[in-house]
């Protein structure tokens, strides 16, 4: 949606939410600074009782590329990212990135996302499930759940993306400025899907690049099982709404065409009209069956991969 342009590293902000990440914070901060020295880091700490916030303040006091937001309560990852987005937009950063504090998103691969932004993309997702992407140290059950969940999301929404739940992202500011943050879903971690789906529907340039996702070595995951149910229920609702809108648009587009065909045909008798209508419905049913078979085959091919 935006034209390609050079992205300066010093106008890029990497947002890293934290809660009890005192072991990981020194590692992730060091890696980001070494991999991309010019980018700025914003640590958004949700009042970590283990001292993560205080350690972040120490880093910020010594390095003008590191900044900190302290939030009074831990109200979820979405709230932390919204606080970070607003902070960065107010300070004229041109590219805002999401990155986990636990090292699962390799800072050494950030350049892959930023290169696509420089090439004109509005949103770049670091994907585990495009060719070249992979997961490391994940239990097989968790990977299967993630893969199947993303296949379901892809089919339900028709967004054409392989990893809509991924949290390693780079946004051009114009995209974020178009989003009403108050409307984003906070069911589980589904806001990541919500952001990507809104970007696709609004015509922004959304791309995926392969990354290596590595399971955290220190600390505990903030993910719990309830997110699966909450997320898939929400996605199913969006999918039905989206398909309903598409069907409505299709009917609106087709109706005048059908009317003209009937008018041009010169058919005046009721039986003839019914015959043509039946033929038209039959043709449409055939096309819908082709689409259904394509969708099933697409799901099967994704599962095989």
Can you put this structure into words, describing what you see?
The protein is α/β, with parallel strands linked by helices. It contains nine helices and nine strands. The chain has a seven-stranded mixed sheet with strand order 3-2-1-4-7-5-8, with helices on both faces. Strands 6-9 form a two-stranded parallel sheet. Helix 5 runs parallel beside helix 8 and helix 5 packs antiparallel against helix 9. The two termini are 31 Å apart.
Poorly predicted regions:
222-226, 246-251, 287-305
The largest sheet has its strands arranged as 3-2-1-4-7-5-8
- Write down the secondary-structure element order: EHEHEHEHEEHEHHEEHH
**Beta-sheet strand percentage?**
5-15%
State the CATH topology of the largest domain.
Spore Coat Polysaccharide Biosynthesis Protein SpsA, Chain A
- The number of helical runs is 9
Mean pLDDT reading:
81
Shape: globular
Please compute the radius of gyration using only Cα atoms: 23 Å
Concise structural overview:
With 305 residues, the protein is an alpha/beta fold. It is built from 9 helices and 9 strands.
Structure keywords:
single chain, 305 residues, alpha/beta, Spore Coat Polysaccharide Biosynthesis Protein SpsA, Chain A, seven-stranded mixed sheet, two-stranded parallel sheet, 9 strands, 14% strand, disordered C terminus
SSE diagram, text form:
Layout: E1 12-18, H1 25-35, E2 40-45, H2 52-62, E3 66-70, H3 77-90, E4 95-98, H4 110-118, E5 123-127, E6 134-136, H5 140-157, E7 169-172, H6 173-177, H7 191-201, E8 206-210, E9 212-214, H8 226-265, H9 270-304
